[in-house]
């Protein structure tokens, strides 16, 4: 998914290409993952958010748990 955004503080000819990213992790690692992404991102204020999974396929939930054990 790519969007073109123009920023009011920049010239109208300055367009940035942006991409969305989905990161899957366990609830216990969300804060650490967000901190890493924010610190490594080139934007001063990157759009980083977390959403709880209220319902998911059981195999997916098990996979997330297995992949994020350590």
Description of the structure:
There is one protein chain. The protein is α+β, with helices and mostly antiparallel strands and 70 residues long. Helices cover 30% and strands 14% of the residues. The chain contains two helices and two strands, in the order ββαα. It has helices at 30-40, 58-67, and strands at 2-6, 15-19. The chain has a two-stranded antiparallel ribbon. Strand 1 and strand 2 (15-19) form a beta hairpin. The protein is elongated and about 40 Å long.
Secondary-structure map:
Blueprint: E1 2-6, E2 15-19, H1 30-40, H2 58-67
How can the largest sheet be summarized?
A: 2 strands, antiparallel
The strand count comes to 2
Continuous helix count:
2
Q: How far do the termini sit from each other? A: 31 Å
Q: Which percent band covers the strand fraction?
A: 5-15%
Mean pLDDT level:
82
Uncertain regions spanning at least 5 consecutive residues: 1-6
Q: What integer value in Å does the Rg equal?
A: 16 Å
Q: Residue share in helices? A: 25-40%
Structural class: alpha+beta
Spatial sequence of strands, sheet with the most strands: 1-2
The secondary-structure element order is EEHH
Which descriptor suits the 3D outline? elongated
């Amino acid at each position: 998914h790519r969007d073109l955004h123009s920023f009011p503080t920049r010239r109208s000819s300055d367009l940035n290409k942006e991409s969305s990213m989905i990161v899957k992790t366990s609830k216990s690692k969300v804060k650490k993952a967000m901190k890493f992404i924010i610190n490594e991102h080139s934007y001063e204020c990157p759009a980083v958010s977390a959403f709880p999974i209220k319902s998911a396929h059981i195999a997916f939930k098990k996979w997330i748990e297995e992949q994020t054990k350590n």
